Amino acid sequence: MPVRVKQLPSNPFRFGRIVSGDAFTDREADILVLQRELRDGQNVLIEAPRRFGKTSLILEVRRRLQADGVPVAYLDCMLVPSRARLADRLASAYFDAFRTPTQRAEEWVVQHLKAVRIRPTLSIDDHGHTQVSFEAASAGSTNLDALLEQLFQEPELIAKTGKKKRLVVILDEFQDLMELGPGLLRQLRAVIQHQQHVSYAFLGSRQGLLRKAVHDRGAPLLKMARPYPLGPLPKDEFTHFLQTRFKASGRPLPRPAIDALIDFTGGHPNDTQEAAHFLWEVALLPLPPDALVRTAIDRMLDAEAAQMTVLWHDSAPAQRSLLVALVEWGGRNIYSEDFRRHANLGAATTVQRAVQTLIERELVDLDANGVYRIKERFFEEWIRRRIVRGEL
Ligand SMILES: Nc1ncnc2c1ncn2[C@@H]1O[C@H](COP(=O)(O)OP(=O)(O)OP(=O)(O)O)[C@@H](O)[C@H]1O
Ligand SMILES: [Mg+2]
Prior knowledge:
Number of helices: 16
Strand order of the largest sheet: 2-5-6-1-7
Oligomer: single chain
Bound molecules: adenosine-5'-triphosphate, magnesium ion
Order of helices and strands: HEHEHHEEHEHEHEHHHHHHHHEEH
CATH superfamily of the largest domain: P-loop containing nucleotide triphosphate hydrolases
Largest sheet: 5 strands, parallel
Distance between the termini: 49 Å
CATH architecture of the largest domain: 3-Layer(aba) Sandwich
């Protein structure tokens, strides 16, 4: 007799990577604006904290643009370790996006990269993707400069020869290009400001570098794109999304549990999905809603313990004291004598240095009301439970 295997329900919440399809919720208004702007030739700058859903959003915009016949190249600059690699990755991204299925690979390269002085080669990677690469590392820095300049120009030339009205280039985590040399973004600006057929989407999250890349006076990409700050997901839609998924996967949860979860994460997309993932695992325990959420967060902090411990270990004593003070006393008036005495922080200059370093490490932020906060909700909670309260 055949054995019937009961299929275990699977956890419907995804975090830590790009989401699409029915794992991606809302953002419809954002998608429509971004799609229209890019299609119409407007550069955009999407700025948001880490894990806010920038990449998932822009890839959805890319799908819609492609469906409208607009070719879109995508490059994640975080994964580009050198200028030589940037040349390879850009050319491969153009190749992927701008070649039509009927064109032979070699012909496309000859036809479209003909202006490039260093001849590219084609190879197939482990996933069967064709990669374009240059022997640029050995070409010397002047030649590499020239090569990059030609590659920056390439999309406009490809649009013209292909009789395309519009091409789009997405540079994800573009602020990381600042780390490949001071002149690189300036060189990019000099080229792309003349382009008529290419729109650029710049996506960024590292505030220190973003300031230098786009916001400071004299920044290379100052006023080159429409700023499009991305907020958390709207509470109502996110609540509905979570509730539906709990129910559809056979683990319906009362509304107060979901409200408590979103209150805890503040609607941060990744944190909320991560907390929901752990809440789903404990959802069948016979506990009241608030105890369920507390248990889920506890499990999540255990799972994240290694990462949290590294952040803690990498903090010097003055930084640790300040982190604890922010959790215990809040982040108002932290330089005042009162605050420093209560929190045992020592001299104001010590506090100043610690704050500066924590801001540079992107762990702490100064909000619009002049209050310092720990940026990562989970790290804050980890400090509260494990360090302040000493819970195991
Ligand atoms: N529209 C959305 N609907 C549901 N969940 C989302 C949405 N956008 C983002 N998320 C959640 O956030 C996570 C991170 O998304 P994504 O990688 O797109 O963000 P990011 O801002 O590009 O992150 P990073 O800073 O790591 O580049 C996803 O795995 C998912 O859990
Ligand atoms: Mg991303």
